[in-house]
């Protein structure tokens, strides 16, 4: 695993010059450490955040100010993006009192043996985290029960339900942050990959197919009718999805459910079409604007399959 790390990307040079801050980034196999220091203190280090986490240590003295962060990947709202060539863990340094954003990213090579958490191939998957239980379920046509078959003809509808049990947690809204189809239950360079949802909730598959989110019955569930696509027909297909449960009062362009309306050639926000401007980044890059109060939430990466798509 020592060869896992190939590149560290820190994209805040211009911002650092403005803030006169010296920033040191260290990417480990499972965590990231960041040190922020200023000779002339301009920003309160106690109010800085790495993602959603406060500093592990902060100080202000005659020599300046300092904030030190240490976070495990998967915590502190650190996002994971899986590409054909690598795995990217990214977040931002922000302040709850200042309008600043310093992107931080660790880029890793994807070894052949790497895979997301594995689950038995069933039509119903559960993953628990932080007092929440995430479910990804293959449903029948009217969503009244589980699917009785995992074989779908090309062009037919694949009904999928994603939900979260909150078990005494504060009320949260659930999103499908990203989903992609692969030909293997693990992600490897040999896998064929077909993106379905990218860019923090943008249903990119809806630009060329009849795939659609369905109106919500409750905040803790999101339903998707996925049109069976021409991808690895006749082979096993696995869906890998990242589910995000978030504070419904703290939504932005990084916490949303958007789909493309081909009639109007516009992206539309599922939960409030009048706020569809949140979807305007779906064709570029979506990054949420940090608020003074850091929202609470959790996420889980799940796998569903195998499915088979036939001609």
Overview features:
311 residues, mainly beta, five-stranded antiparallel beta sheet, 47% strand, disordered N terminus
Folded structure, characterized:
This protein has 311 residues and is an all-beta fold. Helices cover 2% and strands 47% of the residues. The chain has one helix spanning 13-19; strands spanning 5-10, 21-27, 31-38, 48-50, 57-61, 64-72, 79-82, 86-95, 101-109, 124-129, 132-138, 151-153, 157-165, 173-182, 193-197, 202-203, 212-213, 221-227, 236-246, 258-261, 266-269, 297-310. Strands 1, 4, 7, 8 and 9 form a 5-stranded antiparallel sheet that branches. It is elongated, with a radius of gyration of 21 Å. Residues 1-19, 116-129 and 290-296 have low confidence and may be disordered.
Total DSSP helices: 1
| Total E-strand runs | 22
**Biggest pleated-sheet summary:** 5 strands, antiparallel
Which sequence of SSEs, written as H and E, runs from N to C? EHEEEEEEEEEEEEEEEEEEEEE
Sequence stretches where pLDDT stays below 50 over 5 or more residues: 1-19, 116-129, 290-296
Strand content: over 45%
Structural class: mainly beta
Mean of pLDDT:
78
| Secondary structure: helix percent | under 10%
What gap, in angstroms, lies between the N and C termini? 41 Å
Shape: elongated
Radius of gyration: 21 Å
Task: Give the SSE map.
Blueprint: E1 5-10, H1 13-19, E2 21-27, E3 31-38, E4 48-50, E5 57-61, E6 64-72, E7 79-82, E8 86-95, E9 101-109, E10 124-129, E11 132-138, E12 151-153, E13 157-165, E14 173-182, E15 193-197, E16 202-203, E17 212-213, E18 221-227, E19 236-246, E20 258-261, E21 266-269, E22 297-310
Parallel strand pairs: 12-22, 16-20
Antiparallel strand pairs: 1-9, 2-3, 3-6, 4-8, 5-6, 7-8, 8-9, 10-11, 11-13, 13-18, 14-15, 14-19, 17-18, 19-22, 20-21
């Amino acid at each position: 695993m020592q060869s896992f790390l190939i590149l560290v990307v820190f994209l805040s040079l211009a911002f650092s010059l403005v803030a006169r801050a010296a920033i040191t980034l260290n990417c480990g196999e499972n965590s990231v450490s960041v040190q922020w220091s200023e000779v002339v203190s301009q920003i309160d280090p106690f109010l800085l955040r790495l993602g959603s986490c406060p500093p592990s240590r902060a100080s202000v003295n005659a020599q300046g100010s300092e904030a030190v962060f240490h976070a495990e990947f998967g915590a502190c709202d650190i996002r994971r993006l899986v590409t054909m060539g690598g795995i990217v863990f990214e977040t931002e340094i922000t302040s709850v009192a200042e309008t600043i954003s310093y992107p931080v990213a660790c880029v890793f090579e994807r070894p052949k043996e790497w895979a997301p958490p594995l689950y038995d191939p069933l039509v119903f998957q559960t993953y628990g985290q932080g007092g929440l239980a995430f479910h990804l379920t293959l449903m029948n046509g009217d969503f009244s029960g589980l699917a009785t078959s995992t074989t779908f003809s090309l062009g037919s509808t694949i009904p999928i339900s994603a939900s979260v049990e909150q078990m005494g947690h504060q009320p949260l809204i659930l999103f499908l942050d990203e989903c992609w189809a692969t030909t293997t239950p693990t992600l490897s360079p040999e896998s064929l990959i077909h993106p379905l949802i990218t860019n923090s909730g943008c249903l990119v598959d809806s630009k060329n197919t009849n795939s659609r989110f369905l109106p919500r019955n409750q905040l803790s569930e999101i339903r998707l009718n996925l049109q069976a696509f021409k991808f690895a027909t006749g082979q096993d297909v696995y869906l890998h999805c990242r589910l995000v449960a978030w504070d419904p009062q703290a939504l932005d362009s990084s916490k949303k459910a958007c789909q493309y309306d081909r009639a109007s050639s516009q992206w539309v926000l599922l939960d409030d079409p009048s706020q569809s401007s949140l979807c305007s980044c779906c064709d570029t890059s979506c990054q949420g604007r940090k608020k003074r109060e850091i929202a609470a939430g959790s996420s889980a990466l799940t796998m569903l399959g195998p499915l088979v798509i036939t001609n």
